[in-house]
Design brief:
The chain is α+β, with helices and mostly antiparallel strands. It has 2 domains: about 200 residues, G protein-activated inward rectifier potassium channel 1 (Immunoglobulin-like, Sandwich); about 110 residues, Helix Hairpins (Orthogonal Bundle), CATH 1.10.287.70. The strands form 5 sheets. Strands 3, 4, 5, 9 and 12 form a 5-stranded mixed β-sheet that branches. Strands 6, 7, 8, 10 and 11 form a 5-stranded antiparallel β-sheet that branches. The longest helix has 30 residues.
């Protein structure tokens, strides 16, 4: 970091003090949000199990992982009970047809599966107090297990999730008679999002009173909200005299560790619930003097609008004009 640059750059915009992040530079990472929009934070000082929220993890993890865990737990539980039944002795069960040890273990496994699911075909049934007690306990465990799984599946299906996609890069683009910082966002799902609002904060590291400190500034947007996110939305921050990045050059943006923190809020009309999505544009994600390509077009028959989500991040780099965003030197 060049100390001389920090001393002479002072944003004229009002500082935003409710970002949720600290102003201390040395105690925070050089990126506040990860590329997927989650907080770039690692918690220590507590045991792993004390930090773990099993219900939250099971509801929010990917479907493939969730199904693998459920099926794995189901198979392992049946193997354990089959082993217990086998140890007790297969002579304690009526209706066993297996002759070899492997066949008897298989029958014990499937008896366990029938018991834990409360299917109970009736061909095999336990005799004596101990096997009946174990089978009763397994049936109770099965009822609890499937009740929990049912609740988790309902929670996964009923939880609204904003499947918003953001452009890979934020652009400094010509805008009207000036320039602007802009990025694009679109809804990747077929559901409707209404009353969509955007908030963009800029984090800058400044040199003040002999030390480095991180300041946050709210960026004024050309349009803070849209009635519905039907197409792609290009969020635009005009760079004028009131902007904290007025006259900021690429070199200064790097030295100030600029990071644009994006928050999108909208109403999922399917569930009538508010959903949120975050994203971050580090100074390394900003392309200067570029312009987005069109993100949607008319269908061949002229009856529909086609949103090309795979081209959301496509842009053209324009001919360079000046080092500064306002044809001025700092």
């Amino acid at each position: 970091m060049a100390k001389s640059v920090f001393q002479r750059f002072r944003p004229s915009a009002k500082e935003f003090t409710d970002s949720g992040f600290s102003n201390q530079v040395g105690s925070q990472g050089n990126r506040l949000l990860k590329e997927d929009g989650t907080f770039n934070i690692k918690r220590t000082g507590r045991h792993y199990l004390q930090q773990l929220s099993i219900a939250h993890e099971l509801i929010t993890m990917p479907w493939v992982t969730f199904l693998l865990i459920v099926n794995g737990f189901y198979i392992i539980t049946n193997l354990l009970f089959a082993a217990v039944y086998y140890i007790i002795g297969m002579d304690q069960f009526m209706g066993m047809n297996g002759v070899s040890e492997w066949d008897q273990f298989k029958e014990a496994f499937f008896f366990s599966a029938q018991t834990i699911t409360t299917v109970g075909y009736g061909r095999i049934n336990p005799m004596g107090l101990l096997p009946n007690l174990i089978a009763s306990f397994e049936a109770l465990l099965g009822l609890m297990f499937f009740a929990i799984i049912t609740g988790l599946i309902y929670g996964r299906f009923s939880r609204p999730v904003a499947r918003l996609i953001f452009s890979d890069k934020g652009l400094i683009s010509p805008y009207k008679d000036n320039t602007a910082f802009m990025f694009r966002v679109a809804n990747s799902k077929t559901n409707d999002m209404a009353e969509v609002e955007a908030q963009v904060l800029l984090g800058l590291v400044l040199f003040e009173e002999g030390k480095f400190i991180r300041r946050y500034y709210g960026l004024d947007l050309e349009r803070k909200s849209v009635n519905a996110l039907a197409l792609t939305w290009t969020v635009v921050h005009p760079i004028d005299e009131k902007s904290p990045i007025y006259n900021l050059t690429p070199q200064m943006m790097e030295e100030h560790e600029a990071e644009f923190l994006v928050s999108i809020k909208g109403v999922d009309t399917t569930f009538s619930q508010t959903v949120y999505s975050r994203h971050s544009y580090h100074f390394t994600d900003v392309v200067w003097n570029a312009k987005f390509k069109p993100g949607f077009k008319r269908s061949e028959n002229g009856r529909q609008t086609i949103i090309e989500l795979d081209q959301l991040s496509d842009f053209d780099v324009l001919e360079p004009k000046t080092e500064s965003v306002h044809d001025k030197t700092v």
